[in-house]
Amino acid sequence: MFDIGADELLLTAVVAVVVIGPKDLPRALRTVGRWVAKMRRMSNSFRAGIENVIREAELEELEKEWRERNARIMAEHPEQTADTDAQAASAAALGSPPAVHPLPTEAETPLPPPPPPAEGPR
Description:
Helix content: 55-70%
Radius of gyration: 37 Å
Number of helices: 3
Structural class: mainly alpha
Order of helices and strands: HHH
Low-confidence stretches: none
């Protein structure tokens, strides 16, 4: 961020000791440290806000692309669409119970025949 070399830091320290004095220098350095910390927090908060805005814009773009692809696929294959969630939601909105298809019982589904016994050497 700042390009400050060792010689510039030394010159700043000498000027601070002369101007502020050795007695008040620790308190001045604490105050400067607090200001720097506050500026860093504000900078990080601003950066995080910008990143969130960018991330939300990217998500909106991806969602738009997904909707377009989904609409194209649904238009290409209309006979294969089965929107049971939408049907259930509309039935619930109308107050009628959703259509429930019971699972077949064991009596309704025949079991496969058992395999023939294996004949081996005796």
